[in-house]
Amino acid sequence: MKKPSFLKPGSLIRIVSPSGPVDPSYVEAAVAALRERGFRVELGKHVFDRRGCLAGDDDSRASDLQQALDDPDTDAIICSRGGYGLIRIVDRLDFAAMGRKPKWLVGFSDITVLHNALSAAGIESMHAIMCKQVSMKGWPFEKLLAFLQGEAPVYECSTNGLNRTGKAKGRLTGGNLSLVYALQGTPFAVMPSDRILFLEDLCEPAYHVDRMLQSLRLAGVFDSIAGMVVGKFTDISSENAFPSSVYELVSEMVKDRRIPVCYGFPAGHEDYNLPLIMGAETELEITQSQVLIKQF
User: Fold this and answer.
1) Residue 241 pLDDT more than 90?
2) LD-carboxypeptidase C-terminal domain spans which residues (predicted)?
3) How many CB atoms lie within 10 A of CB 75?
4) 156 catalytic residue (yes or no)
């Protein structure tokens, strides 16, 4: 896996909208926050476009993203928001320039499609906050900037009663469960072998979550992972009175596997969304009293 070069004051960050339409005020506030910290910021030509639930038509979104991927002066790309749309254009993208000069790609939710595409291309990326949360300038923003500038991620987390103790090492993969599920059978599917799988999601009925997890089980994803980091599953409804919680559903998937599993890591569809490097070598150590996650 190739690790992009780290940022420094004066590095150029480009903001694009490859998925859903964004509130311009979030972008403007994010630009101000990044410039305040010494970075140059440019916007994609179509960053404020809107076409129904998409940030403009497919050609415009793909064009902005491809230009950012190809631009030799751009050091990082922050996606303005998630939503929906990347799966419509991911197969149009050419990652050749990224392979020659990797740059950080930042985002979450629908951006899982890009994280998995970049992982398949052998390039690390950053599962992290986008414009709305950048504009809030909280701790996730501080950690994002620290990691983009070279600080290695190290997290010590509180325990959860469902945690599975043990140690594991492998490259981090995954992201939003709905997209990990949707990418199965494509060239951008999760590569589970000896990897640590990260999952999170938002606003799904519990039985939808179960169906997606069962699909991954049937595809053999849980048979070959080295460990799991389970993030936040936010606003999950109890429609149809499904009898199990999300974390109980995940626990069922791995009950016959001797692997460490961490539940409740603070990453996902919440404002307190800590960054993780997708594709990075990751150590997971879980004891009865502590969860330790290190990335290299």
Assistant:
1) no
2) 169-284
3) 22
4) no
